[in-house]
Write a structure and sequence with these properties.
Two copies of one chain form a homodimer. The longest helix of chain A has 18 residues. The first copy, chain A, has about 700 residues and is an alpha/beta fold.
Chain lengths: ~700, ~700
């Protein structure tokens, strides 16, 4: 990857012979950008441009170049790539469009390219990419004339589009250092780019744009490693139904469920943002301010209204107001009327104006806030004015002195107003000060630092193993694989082999068999329709609860049979599912094999409200005990599970155990495509699965 | 109000004698701002400043001025105000702080000031205000040196703080025309400002900042009228618990529940935004683009990735992608390879580059989108470049021509990237084009136009009257007023007088009375503890359901009594509440008298989940049938009320009727402070109230 970003020599295959306005000549753009390596344009027509000889073929170039950039029509890419292999070139960027981003034929061409890359060991970036930008080396493979930025942050971008690198100055406060457009990612992908950037000393913050991933586990590993070394910000688009549809046709990405990406990003320790605006603020905050080591905010503001806005935003982003440092209040109050409030947020305007020492009060407040062990970061809101009448409102010295007095680098997020444009650069020269466009953005900026602080310190899952009744489990799984599905009692028994408790029950067709079974069971009973024909049993009138007697059982069986007959006289009932009736809160546990990330485990509110409130948390398998508990605690129904209004809570340890066992089941049964246990009834006595469904493939 | 904004002459009471750096001299600032009216500084010390005579007293001024601005210590404000009254001045701005924003004494001083204003008929703005800005007259009462903006939008701001007017250039893309800081609003308040701005021809868009309101009904009336004439944007801070606390100490506002403000804003037709960033974009969108007359978005983008971001944001903000205009696809495809996609969003880059007619394809797409009856507004995403190589990428002519060809003013929200800063002004010269900082902000900008379109066309509530059993209702209400509360059967009966159906029941203490009543009722029964001592009956073990026989009734009574004895042996049970057991989905109906807006009606999910999912909608009384239905339809449990999985739905007309009757009850009982009916059981047979609680005062 390194020589993709910093080649000594580059061959440009398919460079137009025309230069100047409208030519989109990448050799010309590379020169204009100031690249100091050797550039070899290649075009069968030969000739020369801009003082460079155009080589008719790769073979004519006097050295084996570090990197080739191909921009020819899609049908000529394969031949050009073979030329590169023959010429001993090890790295190729394919700019050309019309591959998996276009149609079936394009997808086949791309697959062939990827196969040749694997066979030859030549690494390919693209197709459908703008390539790379490395501002540390004035290197840019774009065919658009982008001005070289005089100033840029040590931030690197990996994207599935070139727009972000062209627009990087629109998407971060300052330009960024490096960008990699992986395009359709037929070979090199986001994970490869992350591996490079994680170890790159010129990169302090990584930003990832993605529409979807193919290699989920590779991403988890690369991003997981990178995020322990430096902040990794990700913007994943296509999160809405409409957006996912558009993503599919744009880069031909496999698009897993967006909620699953949330779980994956959490696991990988990367910080997700949702909009271009948030991305800009997150880049700025993490590159300039870095981490915030706790949630406690101090606010020094020239406007009381600003303190209120800060409070609203802090609450929404998981920050709280820290305590006023011990003697700061007394120091500020000296000489002021009684009625002046001095709390955090500190409204410095009346203090400064009435006391006639605005700058000193501001400096003192900021310094003490920074020094205080009870404050993790500071929001500073103040006027900056270019007016000759307001030299005394200028706080550059005050902020600088406060920073020195404090002797630490706790983050200061600022909203300078009135003449802010002129002042941002001055204030940002002070270490650990970043200016934002609004109070809310400044607070949100600090919250990114706190989120990263927690993500970097996250634990690694330590899943447990459990004893399994392997003989019985093997038989049931084989049956499931054969039929494609296990339902009801079969499914519950297979889960039982892994220690997931179920309500006692049997399946039988005849009344005599049901009665025989019932004699050995404890009433009240539930009788349900069984079998694939009746997936939505309640729609068939196929569930009777509270059966107390054998006569009741008989009546229930008859009633269900009549309900089915009324709906579809030709349908035969194969069997009924008789269970001891359980009680408790309805929860659901589930598994789904995501095409990108593998098994995803879900737990949430079960029963009829599942689809209404979507109170479900998800995590990637393996899930350990701590993660299982965190999943439960993040549910809105968590307080109900803990018990409300004098009611006993549910045995949450039992649910945690069931989740861990389900995760273990998933890791032992990689071919299970989908599994629902709904409901699990959770009470103070434990939890029991009441119905389940397992799908293979 | 008009002469507050456009006075011919102003007296400045308490103007410092010092001028220049650090003096905060408002006479000096007014001169520098370019005010062309007559300025009379007043200070007992006399002398002169900046060529103006300082008058020792108001009485020395040779004319009765249009406006006085008082900025003296809080204890001298009353005397200065009396001087104004004596001098025949009709309008006063009180800049001074230290009133309701400070302490109890300040609040008293403010009340006295308000009382004198009422008595004298002199109108007061403030205290604790920066006053007004009117850029159409170069008039600004701030004591801060704010540069006069050369260009500003016809947008006016009303705020409870001066920060927004000082920072207005930071909070909107361009400066704004007028600003009014009502401060503590002891006399003139937001409603007065809205009345003025609604009819002000120089105001096209109104922006309101508030921390809280005192006169809710006046605001509803003024904002309701204004919002039918022009867009009214509101940012209400203090929406979080922390923010509400801060607001209380900042401007001493009464702070009602934030959810109630949402209902009030909806009723008044004002468009709420939550952050400074949203405020900026909403101002810009509504001032430049105006309304969008439907939700159907067309997208023309130079980047496919941008189309995906647009799709995500559109879905979040209630916009959808419109259909491609009929023949546009064919026109664009001409001469292109088969594999180029042409759908909405239109990815213009491959079309333009491969076809060699980027500008033409863009113009054509934009024009046809604007002309199409299936598209209500367009998002345009394109590169702007200052490079001499890319004159052909410049779309100013294309956008301008498309606008002319379309012959309409449908909004165009643009995200120009690469060299956007230089280009915004050029593009915004084209009518109905606004540029935003990101794709998401551009789409959100369009959504404000669509939200305003719907708000402006909203209906007026037409509440119905219902027959009432007045004799019985009067007696029960008198009892409630006397005791402060009505519970259980009493409360249900009072509601029954207004036609709200309840489960049949009685309250009685003795077993014999209960049995006698039960004989006349239909089992199964429910028996519950009654009385004030047992507000949370379930915590006392005070509810038994499913009682089928008189023996069961006896056992239930005994069981409950034992539960109570076990918890508190000394407590006497006054009565039991015996009801016919009803079935259905649990919903809740409620009333709360908000200190600002009066009675607020709530409906939502009842029972144990109420506090977990907070699935509640609110509206201000009166609520008519259409509003009641909208409240129900906005609930997450609405699909459950409609019936799922073969289950019959609830009789929603019956619930709508109950809501209308409850609204009528509220309007007839203005002294009811709080009322809960929880649960109401809704089934296909209708709905019945099962428990209720009504509080007076």
């Amino acid at each position: 990857m390194h020589k993709f970003m910093d080649p000594a020599s580059v061959a440009l295959i398919g460079t137009p012979r025309r230069t100047g306005a409208g030519a989109f000549n990448n050799a010309e753009m590379m020169l204009r950008y100031g690249f100091r390596g050797r550039i070899y344009p290649v075009n069968p027509a030969g000739g020369d441009i801009l003082g460079m000889k155009i080589h008719p073929a790769l073979a004519d170039i006097p050295e084996p170049v570090d990197l080739a950039v191909i921009s020819v029509g899609r049908d000529r890419v394969a031949a050009a790539f073979e030329d590169c292999i023959r010429a001993g070139i090890r790295r190729v960027i394919v700019i050309s469009q019309g591959f998996a981003d276009a149609d079936e034929r394009g997808r086949r061409l791309q697959d062939q390219l990827a196969a040749r890359a694997r066979e030859s060991g030549v690494r390919v970036m693209g197709p459908n990419t703008l390539g790379v930008v490395n501002n540390f080396r004035r290197f840019n493979t774009a065919f658009i004339d982008i001005p070289f930025p005089e100033r840029f942050l040590p931030v690197s971008l990996v994207a599935q589009t070139g727009v972000l690198q062209v627009a990087s100055r629109n998407l971060s406060w300052h330009d960024i250092g490096k960008a990699i457009d992986v395009g359709n990612a037929c070979d090199l992908d986001i994970a490869d780019a992350l591996d490079y950037l994680a170890d790159d000393p010129e990169t302090k913050v990584i930003v990832v744009h993605m529409e979807g991933l193919k290699r989920g586990p590779a991403f988890l590993e690369s991003a997981g490693r990178a995020s322990r070394l430096k902040p990794v910000i990700v913007i994943k688009t296509g999160r809405s139904a409409a957006g996912a549809k558009a993503a599919l046709s744009h880069s031909g990405s496999l698009v897993g469920e967006d909620d699953v990406y949330d779980a994956a990003f959490e696991r990988a320790g990367v910080l997700r943002v949702r909009t271009g605006g948030q991305m800009r603020d997150a880049i700025h905050a993490l590159a300039v301010l870095g981490e915030m080591e706790g949630p406690r905010l101090g606010v020094v503001t020239a406007t009381g209204a600003g303190g209120i806005m800060a409070a609203d935003t802090a609450e929404e982003h998981g920050l709280v107001f820290g305590k006023m440092p011990a003697d700061l209040r007394e120091k500020l109050r000296a000489g002021l009327p009684d009625w002046v409030h001095v709390t955090n947020p500190i409204d410095i305007w009346p203090i400064g104006m009435l006391g006639g020492r605005y700058e000193e009060a501001f400096r003192l407040s900021l310094a003490e806030m920074l020094k205080s062990p009870g404050i993790d970061g500071v929001l500073a809101v103040f006027i900056v004015s270019g007016s000759p009448l307001h030299g005394d409102l200028d706080l550059e010295q005050a902020v600088d002195r406060a920073r020195r007095e404090a002797g630490n680098l706790k983050p200061i997020a600022a909203w300078p107003y009135l003449d802010s444009a002129a002042s941002v650069e001055r204030f940002e020269r002070i270490p650990g000060v970043a200016c934002f466009d609004s109070i809310e953005q400044a607070v949100e900026g600090l919250s990114y630092g706190y989120r990263y602080h927690r993500l970097r310190r996250r634990g690694t899952p330590r899943p447990r193993s459990f004893p399994v009744d392997r003989a019985r489990a093997g038989g049931l799984a084989a049956k499931g694989r054969r039929k494609g599905i296990l339902l009801g009692q079969d499914a519950l028994e297979l889960l039982g082999c892994y220690g997931i408790p179920a309500a006692r029950g049997i399946e039988a067709g005849s009344l005599s068999a049901l009665v025989r079974a019932a004699r050995a069971m404890k009433p009240p009973f539930v009788l349900k329709l069984a079998g694939r024909a009746f997936l939505h049993k309640s729609e068939w009138g196929g569930i009777v609860t509270g059966i107390g007697t054998l006569a009741g059982l008989k009546a229930a069986r008859k009633g269900i049979a009549e309900n089915v007959r009324a709906k579809d006289p030709g349908l035969r009932i194969e069997a009924f599912h008789l269970q001891e009736q359980a009680a408790g809160r309805e929860i659901l546990l589930g598994l789904k094999r995501d095409p990108v990330f593998g098994h995803v485990l879900a737990c949430g509110q079960g029963g009829v409200y599942t689809e209404v409130f979507r109170d479900v948390s998800r995590d990637l398998v393996p899930v350990d005990g701590a993660a299982a508990r965190a999943m439960l605690e993040s549910l809105k129904i968590w307080p109900l599970l803990m018990g409300v209004r004098g009611e006993k809570g549910a045995d949450t340890e039992a649910i945690v155990g069931a989740i861990e066992r389900l995760s273990f089941f998933a890791s032992e049964n990689p071919d299970v495509a989908e599994l629902d246990i709904n409901p699990v009834l959770a009470s103070s006595e434990g939890c029991v699965a009441v119905d389940a469904r397992i799908l293979w493939q």
